[in-house]
């Protein structure tokens, strides 16, 4: 006879100093029979841990499908959120537990319920570092009708997130499901901007380019994906955009072209790629045209671009252009200001407690 079957009934709802009840611990351990016994003895199926995790959250977190099914059969709340707003479905999706995701969906879990940051289960699945797991969970959620274009509080859709993680197969799955390829976030960045802002190969951009993504769409600061890639110094991404016909001379709100951006950052390989594509070396920025001292600065940047193009070696990037010319602090500050970086999108956080 078990302890739960004796004449003296233990308190199945008692919690330890860390806020764990017996049902929480049984769910963490994947002890399905113990979970069932505790439920039969009247344990609260939705009792929250101090961080807001219910037994179903713990089962989802650890990928214990049988435990999740036992809790669901007992009527556990599929959509109860923890203190961060995460539901069990978002937890399971973030960690790639496809069977738990399916069990929760079958039980009627809200497939689009967002956490406090506005992230849905689809955002979470798209943010996984493991591409294979991510695409399986993403496809499971899409099959259930998850909203492909729901944005978080920063305006980012699941497609933005997938593009930032470097998983072209996830990007393709979202595009196949009808995701908006050109939807901009709060800063005006499209998924193509996001993909260009990472040290991935040009192949990461291909699903978006093949789907007809706007390669010259500007963000709120007038920067195109080519500006972003030029600033970051990603030659393969730059080449992929050039091969797709991106405007090599389009200026941002300050009049900076991709060439001026790359030159200011001393990315010799990118400078060479832009020069080979016929980028205009003489196109000046708004600030440079207004500044009386811009002539020397422009010659400096153009000279460095030419030097980088001739040598193609990293050493050329470190040489002062024009021997004997004094390097002025004002020029250094202006060059740095002329290439303010596009911010990388915030990555999705793992929700495991």
TrEMBL record:
InterPro entries: Ankyrin_rpt, Ankyrin_rpt-contain_sf. Keywords: ANK repeat, Repeat. SUPFAM superfamilies: Ankyrin repeat (SSF48403). Residues 276-353 are annotated as: Disordered. The keyword Repeat applies. Signal peptide: none annotated. This is Uncharacterized protein. It comes from Chlamydomonas schloesseri.
């Amino acid at each position: 006879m078990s302890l739960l079957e004796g004449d003296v009934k233990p308190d199945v709802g008692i919690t330890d100093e860390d806020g764990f009840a017996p049902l929480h611990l049984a769910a963490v351990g994947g002890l399905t029979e113990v979970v069932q016994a505790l439920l039969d003895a009247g344990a609260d199926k939705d009792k929250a841990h101090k961080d807001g995790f219910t037994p179903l959250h713990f089962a989802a977190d650890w990928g214990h499908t049988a435990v999740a099914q036992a809790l669901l059969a007992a009527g556990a709340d599929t959509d109860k959120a923890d203190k961060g707003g995460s539901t069990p479905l978002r937890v399971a999706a973030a960690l790639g537990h496809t069977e738990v995701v399916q069990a929760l969906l079958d039980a009627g879990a809200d497939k689009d319920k967002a956490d406090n940051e506005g992230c849905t289960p689809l955002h979470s699945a798209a943010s996984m570092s493991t591409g294979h797991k991510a695409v399986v969970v993403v496809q499971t959620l899409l099959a259930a009708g998850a909203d492909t274009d729901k944005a978080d509080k920063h305006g980012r859709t699941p497609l933005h997130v997938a593009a930032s993680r470097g998983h072209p197969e996830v990007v393709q799955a979202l595009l196949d499901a009808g995701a908006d390829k050109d939807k901009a976030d709060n800063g005006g960045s499209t998924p193509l901007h996001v993909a260009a802002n990472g040290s991935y190969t040009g192949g990461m951009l291909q699903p978006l380019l093949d789907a007809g993504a706007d390669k010259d769409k500007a963000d709120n600061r007038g920067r195109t994906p080519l500006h972003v890639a030029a600033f970051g110094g990603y030659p393969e991404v730059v080449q992929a955009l050039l091969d797709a016909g991106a405007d090599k001379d389009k200026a941002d709100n300050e009049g900076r072209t991709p060439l001026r951006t790359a030159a200011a950052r001393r990315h010799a390989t990118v400078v060479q790629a832009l020069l080979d594509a016929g980028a205009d070396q003489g196109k000046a920025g708004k600030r440079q045209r207004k500044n009386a001292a811009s002539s020397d600065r422009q010659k400096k940047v153009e000279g460095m671009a030419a030097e980088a193009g001739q040598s193609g070696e990293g050493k050329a990037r470190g040489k002062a252009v024009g021997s004997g010319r004094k390097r002025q602090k004002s020029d250094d500050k202006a060059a740095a200001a002329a290439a303010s970086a596009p911010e990388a999108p915030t990555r999705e956080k793992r929700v495991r407690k």
